[in-house]
TrEMBL record, chain A:
<keyword id="KW-1003">Cell membrane</keyword>
<dbReference type="InterPro" id="IPR013563">
    <property type="entry name" value="Oligopep_ABC_C"/>
</dbReference>
<keyword id="KW-0547">Nucleotide-binding</keyword>
<dbReference type="GO" id="GO:0005524">
    <property type="term" value="F:ATP binding"/>
</dbReference>
<keyword id="KW-0067">ATP-binding</keyword>
<comment type="similarity">
    <text>Belongs to the ABC transporter superfamily.</text>
</comment>
<dbReference type="Pfam" id="PF08352">
    <property type="entry name" value="oligo_HPY"/>
</dbReference>
<dbReference type="GO" id="GO:0016887">
    <property type="term" value="F:ATP hydrolysis activity"/>
</dbReference>
<dbReference type="InterPro" id="IPR003439">
    <property type="entry name" value="ABC_transporter-like_ATP-bd"/>
</dbReference>
<dbReference type="Pfam" id="PF00005">
    <property type="entry name" value="ABC_tran"/>
</dbReference>
<dbReference type="InterPro" id="IPR017871">
    <property type="entry name" value="ABC_transporter-like_CS"/>
</dbReference>
<keyword id="KW-0472">Membrane</keyword>
<feature type="domain" description="ABC transporter">
    <location>
        <begin position="11"/>
        <end position="260"/>
    </location>
</feature>
<dbReference type="InterPro" id="IPR050388">
    <property type="entry name" value="ABC_Ni/Peptide_Import"/>
</dbReference>
<dbReference type="InterPro" id="IPR027417">
    <property type="entry name" value="P-loop_NTPase"/>
</dbReference>
<dbReference type="GO" id="GO:0015833">
    <property type="term" value="P:peptide transport"/>
</dbReference>
<protein>
    <submittedName>
        <fullName>Abc-type dipeptide oligopeptide nickel transport system, atpase component</fullName>
    </submittedName>
</protein>
């Protein structure tokens, strides 16, 4: 991503609230975000951080007890934050901005064949005839990695494995040729080997179809292989964002430090695993200062009193922490995540050395 | 860690087979399972969904009947159809379980006090009411919660706190073996660490033995002493943790390792995924068995593969 990357979706000072049993919950608090054309932006956060709620506002899919209370969302000259009725979203939801969810079984209709679910979308959105649609659907199935796609066109979702189903959900989403694809934890319910394949698939398809991806996850490990840029969310705010390299190798917010330190890959056997003390604050209450302050060992007095602004680290990298204020004491990131790249390099070298010596790592030598 | 200790086998599985249905509908979920779990260690069973890892855990708990082979606990066969009441009683106490979903595994209508005490009450493990309260209070504090939490209900707690309650409920029975089935996969990253550290703490203090069932190899590397990799009901490889990571020998183990995400953008982008193809095995005439290819390192292989693997390992260790 270059700095002058074209922005295709722009969020300004967005707040989202929900009414839950007469109480008000602030799920998103003043978030601003630019989505660059044809990038993969990963939004990383724990449950309750607001990552799913944020992207639901892009397709008007907030639950009925919630709504945008402040701010704007602009996409392709349209102000999405002003759209109220379902009718207004026709032509955007699914067609321009599509979403794939965590559990592929709940996204598919169990009593319709896989093929018909894909062609239906093509007929509706691209105005093709049934025959053309079938051809395109089979083509799309093959592209998303279904062997013998023509034979499997008439099968039902239950006849597909979890990984295959998620491939089909992706195929349905792509049938509309959307400009933006929101992937909400698309691999969390899948096995690691399948997860790796789906990640590769999303990357390949993006190169081919030139869409922009928002990838939502709680797992920083998954993000490293796929993201161009990363935004980290905590308690309804983006607290740090930057290019993937900047977030992994030069993180600035103490919460990002904690997330990286919690990676099990960094733990040494027999030692303690890094853990963040406490729990995130309740979103029912007004949050004063930096929401992470009570769990932050580096918190200063001001962190409990005043909310920090976004400080600029580089042209592409920003973090919302008082530690970046020129008056703040200089704090180094925890030693556990210093020289991250070198550590993984060493680890990989020691693991791989043995493997290479074992016959070039190939499994089929007889 | 385990090698230096004298190996005291707490539980072993011998030629274990677990099947469902019968006749034409018979489905073999686990076959030829052979492993020992040593006292005080963490033994991990790693596999994908449908591999049979949970089924083995359930068979050890006595929930799922076995169709062949033995499960031996403290020298006694425990997978027999007729266990005496005393034997059942004893096993329930000695083998406890921690579940994946702390939301579903706690009784929503009971107070935390009751949930933690239930085992004590069923097994009359306290002298008087004061003794019970003392035990429960001590337990809840040792999992990092407060005595005042005892009078609340499960829905008032977060996922991580509920998992602590699940651990407290299991540990108050003073078990010897804990079967932990994906105990952290439903938890957020920052909470996972708290729960794993807690499990480690109890192991250090009470010499507990864990059977840790998981699919995430990165967590397993940190917590386990030895790992068994299971694929479609067959344990394909078993070794000490570092040996398995440095010298994975079965093609499935290698594929599984290649799929573990690397949390480093530069390395992750170079990484190549290995996909396991079962057709590399030719088991038609040369039948496979579970062979010890190096001390403590077992692999499922036929004669031809065994020779190949031995060669490779010898080369790897020559360096």
């Amino acid at each position: 991503m270059s700095d002058d990357a074209k922005s295709i979706l722009s969020v300004k000072d967005l707040s989202v609230g929900f009414k839950v049993r007469g109480r008000k919950l602030r799920a998103i608090r003043n978030v601003s975000l630019e989505l660059h054309d044809q990038e993969i932006l990963a939004i990383v956060g724990e449950s309750g951080s607001g990552k799913s709620v944020l992207t639901k506002t892009f397709t008007g899919m907030l639950e009925s007890n919630g709504g945008i209370t402040h701010g704007t969302i602009d996409y392709d000259g349209k102000r999405l934050s002003d759209l109220k009725k379902d009718k207004d979203w026709i032509g955007i939801r699914g067609k321009e901005i599509a979403t794939i969810f965590q559990d592929p079984m709940t996204s598919l209709d169990p009593i319709k064949t896989i093929g018909s679910q894909i062609s239906e979308v093509i007929i509706k959105h691209q105005g093709k005839s049934a025959k053309e649609a079938k051809k395109l659907a089979i083509d799309l199935m093959a592209r998303t990695g279904i062997p013998n796609a023509a034979d499997r066109y008439n099968e039902y979702p239950f006849e597909y494995s979890g990984g295959m189903r998620q491939r089909m959900v992706i195929a349905i989403a792509l049938a509309c040729r959307p400009k933006v694809l929101i992937c909400d934890e698309p691999t969390t319910a899948l096995d690691v080997t399948i997860q790796a394949q789906i990640l590769d698939l999303i990357k390949e398809l993006q190169k081919e179809y030139h869409f922009t991806t928002i990838f939502i996850t709680h797992d920083l490990g998954v993000v490293a292989s796929i993201a161009d840029r990363i935004a980290v969310m905590y308690s309804g705010q983006i607290i740090e964002y930057g290019k993937a390299d900047e977030i992994f190798y030069n993180p600035r917010h103490p919460y990002t430090w904690s997330l990286l330190s919690s990676l099990p890959q960094l733990a040494t056997r027999g030692g303690e695993l890094f853990s963040i003390p406490g729990t995130p604050p309740s979103l029912y209450k007004d949050i004063k200062g930096d929401a992470f302050a009570p769990r932050n060992p580096y918190a200063m007095k001001i962190d409990f009193e005043e909310e920090p602004p976004m400080f600029k680290v580089t042209e592409t990298h920003y973090a919302k922490t008082w530690l970046l204020d020129p008056r703040a004491p200089k704090v180094e990131k925890p030693s556990l995540i210093q020289n991250l790249h070198q550590r993984f390099l060493d680890m990989q070298a020691s693991d791989a050395a043995a493997k290479l010596e074992m016959g070039g790592g190939s499994d089929d030598d007889e | 860690m385990t090698m230096s200790k004298d190996k005291d086998v707490l539980l072993s599985a011998k030629d274990l087979e677990i099947s469902f249905g019968s006749g034409k509908n018979k489905f073999v979920a686990v076959k030829n399972a052979n492993f020992d779990i040593y006292r005080g260690e963490t033994f991990a069973l790693v596999g994908e969904s449908g591999s049979g890892k949970t089924t083995i855990g359930r068979a050890i708990m006595g929930i799922t009947p076995t169709s062949d082979g033995d499960i031996i606990f403290n020298g006694e066969k425990i997978n027999k159809p007729k266990l005496s009441n005393e034997e059942k009683h004893n096993l329930t106490r000695k083998i406890q379980m921690i579940f994946q979903d702390p939301q579903a595994s706690l009784n929503e209508r009971a107070t935390i006090d009751y949930i933690i005490s239930e085992g004590l009450i069923n097994f009359h493990l306290f002298k008087n009411e004061k003794d019970r309260v003392d035990k429960v209070t001590q337990m809840i504090e040792s999992v990092g919660l407060l005595p005042e939490h005892l009078y609340r209900y499960p829905h008032e707690f977060s996922g991580g706190q509920r998992q602590r309650i699940g651990i407290a409920r299991a540990l108050i029975m003073e078990p010897e073996l804990i079967v932990a089935d994906e105990p952290i996969s439903a938890l957020d990253v920052s909470i996972r660490a708290q729960v794993l550290n807690l499990l480690k703490k109890f192991q250090r203090e009470d010499n507990l033995t864990y059977l840790f069932i998981a699919h995430d190899l990165s967590v397993v590397r940190f917590i386990s002493d030895r790992i068994a990799v299971i694929h479609l009901g067959q344990i394909v490889e078993l070794a000490e943790t570092e040996e398995l990571f440095t010298n994975p020998i079965h093609p499935y183990t290698r594929a599984l390792l290649s799929a573990v995400p690397v949390p480093d953008p530069a390395l992750a982008k170079q990484k190549k995924l290995t996909v396991y193809d079962m057709s590399v095995h030719h088991y038609e005439t040369d039948k496979p068995k579970f062979v010890e290819i190096r001390p403590g390192h077992f692999v499922w292989a036929n004669q031809q593969e065994e020779d190949l693997y031995r060669n490779r390992l010898a080369k790897a260790h020559a360096h």
